[in-house]
Write a structure and sequence with these properties.
single chain, mainly beta, Jelly Rolls, 8-stranded antiparallel β-sheet, 8 strands, about 5% helix, about 45% strand, disordered C terminus
């Protein structure tokens, strides 16, 4: 095993506590599992939610329920509905989430989404 191996395990999300996070508008509720180099979350945004920052972190975001918009700093907007996913590497865009009616997401992020320039910084031969 290397220092990042994760043994097989099942996750009962009903047992993972929710933490509350304020947006610029609305609330986000996170259920978070943290492993070395990997974070897995179920995130629910309340109706009218607008993120309070432009995020540059890489994510895999899968829409479980509802719909939301991922807005990029350059003005582009992408609408995601139940069953849709997006993926982006660290520092590849500045993005934020917006939802009118609320949404439930599965979000995965971690070291594997670092940009190539970051990998050179963190993984020296």
């Amino acid at each position: 095993m290397n220092d990042k191996d994760i043994p097989f395990q099942s996750i009962d999300w009903t047992l993972i506590p929710k933490t509350e996070h304020n947006g610029a508008r609305g609330l986000a509720f996170w259920q978070t599992l943290q492993f070395q180099g990997l974070r897995i979350r179920i995130v629910e945004y309340s109706a009218g939610y607008l993120a309070d920052h432009w995020c540059q972190k890489g994510h895999i975001v899968h829409c479980l329920e509802g719909e939301f918009i991922s807005e990029l700093l350059d003005g582009r907007k992408f609408r995601f509905k139940k069953g849709m996913t997006y993926v982006v590497s660290d520092d590849a865009s500045s993005h934020r989430s917006i939802t009118e009616k609320g949404v439930k997401l599965l979000i995965v992020d971690g070291d594997f989404l670092r940009s190539k320039s970051d990998n050179k910084r963190y993984h020296k031969p």
